[in-house]
Amino acid sequence: MKGKFITFEGIEGCGKSTQIKLLCEYLERKGIPFLSTREPGGTTIAEAIRRVILDPATPEMLPETELLLYSASRAQHTGELILPAIAKGKMVISDRYYDSTYAYQGAARKLNTDFIDVLTRFATFGLQPHLTILLDLPAEEGLARIRERSLDRLEQEALSFHQKVREQFLVIAKKQQYRYLVLDASKAPEDLHRAVLKALELV
Ligand code: TMP
User: Fold this and answer.
1) What are the boundaries of each domain within the chain?
2) 4-199: what fold?
3) Residue pLDDT, tens place only, 1-27
């Protein structure tokens, strides 16, 4: 898994952050070089774009603007941070990558998938995850888990929006089985962690 690119995907409240934290603690203990990052974000410019995208005070943002901002964030993140880290032989772990764009902006916002294909190739420099772990959970359960938080612009969307996101992740996972591991996110965090380590051939 040296120099490999691992992504975590799933709806809000699916437990990505917990699994990424457990994985990073494991890699730290084993002395395996890695970089943990997130989308949108990961670099100074991409984190600034993140603040603009997720600001709950701007509900007027158009889907088109949203798609371009996620892509801009991805281009900077990939070119500045991810590709150089992979080149140095680090395992790169990203909380979300382009599958989120197909699920949120493609399926839920109904933007043109052919256009997203073109933008994605451009913004990723052709990089694809070696392994994507989907933490699958019904939208109702995910939203119930984040009820106590102050919600960002996307988290505030209706249940039907998050249901479309979940369905699209499952469609992508089925089509691209060669790089996908789908886990039932309602399972205990320790069980999920073990499954992640197994998929990464660390145990
Ligand atoms: P997070 O809450 O998992 O940090 O993700 C930020 C939000 O951005 C989340 O609601 C999913 C959304 N998102 C997209 O809509 N498209 C994308 O391409 C990415 C990376 C995230």
Assistant:
1) 4-199
2) Rossmann fold (3.40.50)
3) 679 999 999 999 999 999 999 999 999
